[in-house]
TrEMBL record:
It catalyses: 3-phosphoshikimate + phosphoenolpyruvate = 5-O-(1-carboxyvinyl)-3-phosphoshikimate + phosphate. One of its GO terms (molecular function) is 3-phosphoshikimate 1-carboxyvinyltransferase activity. This is 3-phosphoshikimate 1-carboxyvinyltransferase. The gene is aroA. Residues 7-419 form the Enolpyruvate transferase domain. 3-phosphoshikimate binds at K20, S21, R25, S164, S165, Q166, S192, D310, K337. GO terms for cellular component: cytoplasm. SUPFAM superfamilies: EPT/RTPC-like.
Amino acid sequence: MNVTISPSSVRGTVRAPPSKSYTHRAILAAGYADGATVQNALWSADTRATAAAVDLFGGEVERLEDATLEIEGFDGRPDVPADIVNCENSGTTMRLVTAAAALADGTAVLTGDESLRSRPQGPLLEAIADLGGEAYSTRRNGQAPLVVTGPIAGTGVSIPGDVSSQYITALLMAGAVTDEGIEIGLETELKSAPYVDITLEVLEAFGVEARHTDDGFAVDGGQSYSPEGREYAVPGDFSSISYPLAAGAIASDEGLRIEGAQPSAQGDTAIVDVVERMGAGVDWDRETGTIEVSAGSLEGIEVSVEDTPDLLPTIATLGAVADGDTYIRNAEHVRYKETDRVNAMAEELGKLGVETTEEQDSLTIHGSDSMLEGATVDGCDDHRIIMALALAGLVADGETTIRGADHVDVSFPGFFETLEGAGVGLEREEA
């Protein structure tokens, strides 16, 4: 699907979708339990992949009409999957499910789409081998398809922290149901650390104790997953909130109200501070979970995305509208997402008349040297690139057409409906 965005002002009230990060973890945690109800769950392409994996491990995920998932778990010991585990485009699914597969007494095969088959899995495979399992890439390059044989026993492992925090999440979740538990030593500084904090928060809600150590993390073995009242509620998603928040900052003279913004461990809450620092009007009522945002004269700032890689596309678009330079640093790990998001934003914003400087670990947006003009851009099969480019279309001179826009289904299935509800003019065309 291609979507054409007309220059528009946004107003009214929008609601954030549930958190994708929390939903992934909650679905698998309910699988590790003997069952649980997950309320306010995000049902997207990525989270459906995690649910399908739980089914293959011997659980059952049933979706009800009110964003509720009724999940029958496999109670800590997954079955050997009767089919290949297809993780689709979801890197989170592949990392978390790879560790779960290593608990089964047999062999599992995991794969995904072309993009996912290019993403690094080697450190997690090595950790599983160190824990007594067998895990390898069929192409011997550390990338899917993966073959995993368990069961692992649990003990100590070391792993790099600067490739993906999801390795740590996967091992902590699986380690709780091993006999000995797992201690994880970090070989390098941890990137995207708030995502591990999300994991610790979800584990605690499911009755599992995990902790920071002097050189990494640890989880004791022999634990059971059991949320209070057999229920868990997913909070709103600040990665997704970043898009209406930025839309309000660049295209809302009347003001835009965002609901579902309760505080949590999500590092991407940093987008509220970023937008405010750049000069937009922002009022976040943490108690009610509402944010009021209105447009202002934006100024470029310096931002590190070391812990918030998913925010880079949004910040890049904000920089395209701001005066001066917006310098986004500590960004090398953002190149290993669904696409190389540093390069993708530089290339696609360039088609809209935006001047950028791309380096291996940074992206600088030269707002004062840019003139946003409508053009046809490529969504790069990446939900975050698509949504960020849609924001640029709100204030570009002329219409902006985004190719492959249906990929927003990965994290924000109702994104374009949300824009329309806020007053944005857009047209859809089947590609």
